[in-house]
Amino acid sequence: DGLVVSEKVKSNNIDVEIPKSELEAEEKGAEEERPRESDSNILDLSSDYPRDKHISIQRHLADLEKLADLREDERKPCPLCPEEKFKACYSHKLHRHLQNLHWKVSVEFEGYRMCICHLSCRPVKPNLVGDQTLSKMGAHYHCIICSATIVRRTDMIGHINRHVNKGETESRFITVRAPKSSCKVVKESATDVQVLPNHSTPQKTDSYFNPKMKLNRQLIFCALAVLAGERKPIECLDAFGATGIMGLQWAKHLSSSVKVTINDCNENSVTMIKENCHLNKMKVKLNIREEDNDETVGNGQENSDTIEVTKMDANVVMHLRSFDFIHLDPFGSSVNYLDSAFRNVRNLGIVSLTSTDLSSLYAKAQHVALRHYGCNIVRTEYYKELAARTVIAAVTRAAARCNKGIEVLLAVALEHFVLVVVRVLRGPTPADDSAKKVRYLIHCQWCEERVFQKEGNMVEENPYQQLPCDCYGSMPGKTAVLLGPLWSGALFNTGFLRRMLLEAVQYGLDEAQSLLKTLVCEAECTIPKHFSTHSPGDENKQEECGVYIRTPNTSAESYLVHGKRKSEEVLRSTAKRQRPEHSAEHPPFYYNIHRHSIKGMNMPKLNKFLSYLSEAGYRVSRTHFDPMGVRTNAPLAQFKTVLMKYSTPTYVGAQAEGPVHLPGEIHMGAEVPAATAIKVKEAELVEDDKPGVATTAFTHSYPTHCAAD
Length: 709
Description:
The protein is globular and about 100 Å long. The strands form nine sheets. It has a nine-stranded mixed beta sheet, with helices on both faces. It starts with a helix and ends with a helix. It is built from 22 helices and 28 strands.
């Protein structure tokens, strides 16, 4: 055998590689032409890899030396180098050559070493030097999995890692699924799902699972649980299943209240969803439209433990069937699926969508936002709320095209996603009412004051007059920009949020509880103190879509008839009922206290500043969009006045907190620091008459989560 190998080395015919662009058929032909050496001691193969490997792939250095058949009395060539690169030599020199130039720079994978190869396996373009052509032999590695030839060692390591992340541990010419040992089981909310090692990279895996989106899944579950309390059973769709974690949680916790359909257009994802259903002891009803056959996996007929799994495009499945609850969570923007979602969604149903294209929504790629959402935005201090209103505006227009209106139940914009939950109101009148709330925003780029443009089609001579600030008159050039179109209505429904909080408490969703308490505070726009799940004025009734819904202490019930839609007469009669005082919409947008801080002054604590604004007669609350944000109906000038009044000079002492004396409060002969006097003069320029104290007392109780500073 050794002599045969030596002759092959001299003729440079060892395991000639086919170019990478050629397909499987050509490689099989090449393997048939060269003699099989798998039965000899040249290659050390295992049953895990049924096909022949290149001779540069070995387990031990001794196996590589066997290829050269080292003998002390004979000169032997290197089996991995051409003769013109390394001439035949004695065993001791060849041993050092194999060890230093091939073995030490190898890439290890599952006990095998992929050594560097200098043979003419990889086609290299010739270098022309004068009239001579030099055939340059390029060093390269042979992949143990897919037979690709890689030049650099770092590229080879990355190439192998990509195979491992995809679950490919065997030759790509053998169509086998990744072994179950490469999958790991992840548990969330008492639901088990198995995922691939690269589950956190959506563009490189079929089973995308992001643990950071746990809060997102909990909020959607609470919204579905509230809807399930209104009517039973409801048909819900997870349009982008991936691992199926969300649909499995719905079916496992809500059982007979919901009929779950999980859809994905990827075949591997559908297989993974089916396995995860079995892992959670759920029956599967397969509905693959391409094959026109329905297959029920499990014993017996469909019941509450059965999940329907479909393999279709999301737009197709939403066009074919009607649902009460639809959730859209594609990779990126959801705008391509909004028309299909609102086409067949039932009246008073819910559509939730998660957008992860944050570069465009957060104004880092403004041209993409204009292309996807038809909206002009810039980076502002309130950019997260701007993103939420941009998404809702796109949702409103899509619903209006289907003669449907919306009511926003929830809008959340956090670090990793923007979540919007809306209730669908069928009819042209709600559609018109919703469309009227999509308006443009006038934003001052100097002071960041903002105001929605007035309704009407008449062109104003000077739109700057709508802004409360006077930057246009005092600053050179054009100071404001027109943003939008944006949603100008409310972002939250207090009654729905309170019922979501009850569901979160019932199912022990701690992360969702903390955020929902903050959202209730923000929706009612009052100072957080001690939280209560019911408002004192109307403990048992909340209003949604003009309909009162009863919310007792123990569970969320409604006047809606279970299993039926409410008749139009009942809807009309309940819509005429008087709205409670606390249902007034919260002020749009918020101010960042650091953005408007005063140089050389120590700001008061945020919670104390909220109290000062409330004492001045303004509605005020914290916001989940920004931990240092303040949502208030106070104009920016009054906001800065109160902030300056209760700030202390830095050099006087940061510990002493108290109001800065305004000109009317300074006594004769009292010494005022120079910096303070300058700020007081600035305050005189911007201070206006303080509004009267609001007559409505907000005595709601709120969470300690909001009070943390």
